């Protein structure tokens, strides 16, 4: 099974990955690869300090303080290393579980694989169209941090601002 979802009563925007990388499994939390830009990107967009790589509590706090939720599309799969292209035997998470517990209004997918898997397995249940964002993975070298900031910032801004105003 994958990691438990991170969500709270103010979580209105859900960010979905596909499946944890081997480095994330080693760390025991989402986006554990030291070169993955997810945590520095999210910190920059929210104005929060970037959490230390090992500080899972600070990462959870960053998600929850800004009205976000974090999860993966898949509960289990067969995968070679961290290659999303090799995913087989996909079993999706129960999105209904999360939607019954958090007021999710928008879904954002971190990369093409998460988007494709969400559309196939979760969107028919959630009824929420997802926004495909460029992957924060170090394998997505074509996207600089500045370009990621622009794309992710434009997409998440309405939800971050909405939650900061409360």
Automatic annotation (TrEMBL):
This enzyme's EC code(s): 3.2.2.15
Pfam families for this protein: UDG
Signal peptide: none
GO MF annotation terms: DNA-deoxyinosine glycosylase activity
Key words, A-Z: Glycosidase, Hydrolase
Membrane-crossing residue ranges in chain numbering: none
NCBIfam families with a match to the protein in the record: hypoxanDNAglyco
This protein's name: DNA-deoxyinosine glycosylase
Organism of derivation: Candidatus Faecalibacterium faecigallinarum
